[in-house]
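[User]
Protein folding is very new to me. Any chance you could explain this protein sequence and its structure tokens? I have pasted everything here:
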Amino acid sequence: MSMINEYINKKFGSSELESELIRLVGEYNKLRNTCLLVYAASTEKQIPLVQLLQSDFYTIRDLLSSQIHSHETVDVYLETPGGRGEAAEEIVRFLHSKFRKVSFVVAGEAKSAGTIMALGGNEILMTDTGSLGPIDAQMQVGRSVVSARDYIEWVEEKRKAATKDKMLNPFDATIVAQITPGELNHALHALEFAKDLVVDWLPQYKFANWQVTETRGLPVTDEMKRQRARKIADGLTDRKRWRTHGRSINIKDLESDEIGLKITHIDNNPELAEIVYRIQTVCRLLFDSSAVFKIFATDQHKIFRQASPAVSRPMAVPPQPGHIIIEPKCPKCGNNYRIYAKLADDPNIDVMCKKQGLTLFPKEGKIKCPCGFEIDLWGVKKQIEIEMGRKLITG
């Protein structure tokens, strides 16, 4: 039976999945004699905050503060679509300042800034399903976060077109007119920043114990380490080979002669692989069945970032309302709900609302939709309480 079907057949909801994740982290720690941090972000949900952010560094620092004295090593289960290179730098430097050895575990996607983070470890462990991505930095341009390399290449393409044709079409001309020299300069520096981090970190951490060459047994010098680091950085920024910013680079590609990065194969250790694949499965089930889009977890603590559900509220209410009606919609199946939130302990409100087919705001703050998705209403609850200046009475 597949792991996904196993958890579904056991009717694991969000609470059970959260407990299972903590249990798996504990099992991992026993097997590897280390401290595992799970940092996983949904690669499917189109939410701006899913990116690797500076606030993630503060969360990770806080979570690991109690673990520092009990462990000398840390493993980071890493899954992210990428984000800010500066945040990746902060996280890696913090980990190395507090732990003797830092390892990154990749079973899904660790793209862009996630790849930069992984290359800052002493060891990279990957499953057959894991992948890194081309080295790049992402930057804010207007209201969007874009690849610095994509941005530069688009501008260069339009520059060549303008030189050749002596003009641009009106649409491109409008966009180009909004580009400032500062933005272009920022993109160029972002690209070099990403490469510089990799070239600096690989000799310092990944190659720290590389003493002799594999084929001829020659002593490895610092310059040889930097040359290998530059080769890897160049290989991971080869746009002609990877084509797109989102390309998945697997173990075979990473260990090829063109890149030459050594990877620890998790699948060669069945007991470790079982735990890691289960962690990946649990994280994805949480992403698919709830509003969770980012997970931070150790064997002692967990923090889940959740997106507030779309609701239609409030309906027209009198100056001193006894209740408010909200209408959340399941983002997975589109099912609509009609819920009343009580602001006064009046049983007449319950009678009136139930006659209208309304359901009382759930005490646990969550709606379990028949499709399996769990709608979290705590954000809506807090918003109503702030606006009304009163606490809700829940079921």
In short: The chain has 14 helices and 17 strands. The radius of gyration is 25 Å. Residues 314-320 have pLDDT under 50 and may be disordered.
